[in-house]
Amino acid sequence: QVQLVESGGGLVQAGGSLRLSCGASGIIFGINNMAWYRQAPGKQRELVAYITSHLRTNYTDSVKGRFTISRDNAKDTVFLQMNSLSPEDTARYYCNAKYWRSEHWGQGTQVTVSS
């Protein structure tokens, strides 16, 4: 059974930082491309950042320079370091694992940034 479990969300003031974690089980973590998505109320889910199995990364423009995605294959965990948070970053953040035709999602963790 595949499980992706996010943690690290919470309430933070604008300008603050949070570090999200996503622990994976039931998959061969190292071969999966991992990503973080987010969905704000009334908006579509959007890709925030991804990191490939070869450690190539990419970010949506609005988070470039503020967020950093990384992975620890020994711990089957992917991280999202979020700095200089703004109220526009408020959303539920979801972990995603993808390999070939297989794709899995976590339940998400809520991030709320107050102004």
**Total beta-strand segments:** 11
Helix content: under 10%
Give the topology string: H per helix, E per strand. EEEEEEEEEEE
CA distance, first residue to last residue: 40 Å
What class would the helix/strand composition place it in? mainly beta
Overall spatial form: globular
Q: Which band does the percent of strand residues land in?
A: over 45%
Average pLDDT rating:
97
Query: Over all CA atoms, what is the radius of gyration?
Result: 13 Å
| Number of DSSP helical runs | 0
Point out poorly predicted stretches: none
Query: Major β-sheet, in short?
Result: 7 strands, mixed
Model description:
This protein has strands at 3-7, 10-13, 18-25, 33-39, 46-51, 57-59, 67-72, 77-82, 91-99, 102-105, 109-114. Strand 7 (67-72) and strand 8 (77-82) form a beta hairpin. The protein has 115 residues and is mostly beta strands. 0% of the residues lie in helices and 56% in strands.
What distinguishing features does this structure have?
single chain; 115 residues; mainly beta; 7-stranded mixed beta sheet; 11 strands; globular
Produce a short descriptive summary.
By secondary structure, the chain is mainly beta. Helix content is 0%, strand content 56%.
